[in-house]
Specification:
about 325 residues, alpha/beta, FAD/NAD(P)-binding domain, five-stranded parallel sheet, 16 strands, binds flavin-adenine dinucleotide
Length: about 325
């Protein structure tokens, strides 16, 4: 059984399939197993000893890991398809949403994952060449995107010794408690304040990023304006309108783009296997987690889009159950 990707979906599936008696090999393109848990989520939020302990248990129980091995380039996906009885694609969803505005090409503007992965590797002891270093020390940092990934960038920038950290978000500030517009059992959209925010910095909502300005090829300013969401369309949905004469600028030596992920990488393994994609560009499967290619399954962010660890674990376990049934015609693995 070949598993592509060692994030929570791949690890959960490996654990279950190994317990069911299959020989499980996990292929991971990075130098260490864990997926986003390893190099996406910072150590200050997830202590890596927890992850190391769990991976050591899996290894002792017989799961094999092929690190530094990218399926699709280091090893052809079609080769694995021939050599293994089944494959699980659990490669996550990492193609970042970009902000294609004037000045985007200035140096000093980076995607959140490039910043976090490098910073987490440095915390783990890896040396980064000065020419490639993305470091907030002594810099004015602007994080664009008010979500959880942005919050992790805020916390990282504080730890690296930024002079100032400002986080901006295009949407209006959510309410701090459940409003009448979000009655139970609706999932409420509430203001989230993480420990990273409690540590310092500024947060601004309803801000449109219009342009980057720079000097000598490096970013120096982010030009913004305020947004108004008070007008509604015929369906009652808020309309976004720029507030006249509300332009303002933020000084910035380092800009981090944390405005979400669009879908998994489509080249490499997915292209070689010719799996179908859904409308959002994620890997499409039937209810039993099988893609349009017989014996090739998918789970986690690669299948459902960027989500949460609990969902990745749940999908990995459900996919393992479906894979065991596919291989053995019956299964004693739990559905969950
Ligand atoms: C910055 C950040 C913070 C987050 N914080 C939280 C949080 O606090 N709580 C929470 O619940 N969720 C959080 N999430 C979301 C959570 O991390 C993901 O939903 C979860 O990790 C998805 O698991 P996965 O196994 O599907 O994919 P991933 O964890 O992305 O793992 C995929 C793995 O596959 C490998 N891979 C990809 N392609 C190949 C290939 N071709 N060959 C070999 N290996 C390959 C990748 O290197 C990676 O290791 C966060 C996400 C980010 C980006």
């Amino acid at each position: 059984m070949a598993i592509v990707g060692s994030g929570p979906a791949g690890l959960a599936a490996a654990d279950q399939l190994n317990k069911a008696g299959h020989t499980v090999i996990v292929f991971e393109k990075d130098d260490k197993a864990g997926g986003m848990l390893r190099y996406g989520i910072p150590d200050f939020k997830l202590d890596k000893t927890v992850l190391d302990r769990r991976i050591a248990i899996l290894k002792k129980e017989g799961v094999k890991f092929m690190l530094n091995t990218e399926v699709g380039s280091d090893v052809k996906a079609s080769k694995l398809l021939k050599e293994f009885d089944a494959m699980l694609l659990a490669g996550g969803s990492r193609v970042a949403r970009d902000l294609k505005i004037e000045g985007r090409s200035f140096e000093g503007i980076h995607f959140a994952m490039d910043y976090l992965i490098q910073s987490n590797k440095r915390v783990a002891g890896k040396k980064i060449a000065a020419s490639k270093l993305i470091d907030a020390k002594g810099k004015r940092v602007v994080v664009i995107g008010g979500g959880d990934t942005g919050a992790d960038c805020v916390g990282m920038a504080h730890r690296q010794g930024a002079i100032s950290v400002v986080q901006i978000e295009v949407l209006p500030k959510p309410p701090e408690c459940r409003s009448a517009a979000q009655p139970w059992p609706k999932y409420p959209s509430l203001l989230k304040t993480s420990t990273s925010h409690e540590e310092g910095g500024e947060r601004h909502w309803a801000v449109l990023t219009k342009k980057f300005e720079g000097e000598g090829g490096r970013v120096k300013k982010v030009l913004c304006s305020r947004l108004d969401f008070s007008r509604k369309d015929d369906r009652g949905c808020p309309l976004m309108a720029e507030v006249p004469n509300s332009q303002f600028e933020l000084r910035a030596d380092l800009v981090i783009l944390a405005i979400g992920f669009i879908h998994p990488e489509h080249g490499g393994a997915l292209n070689q296997l010719k799996v179908s994609l859904d409308q959002k560009g994620n890997v499409k499967t039937s209810a039993d987690y099988m893609t349009c290619v017989k014996g090739v399954f998918s789970a986690g962010d690669m299948r459902r889009g960027q989500s949460l660890i609990v969902w990745a674990i749940a999908e990995g376990r459900k996919a393992a159950c479906a894979i065991d049934r596919y291989l053995m015609e019956k299964t004693s693995l739990p559905e969950m």
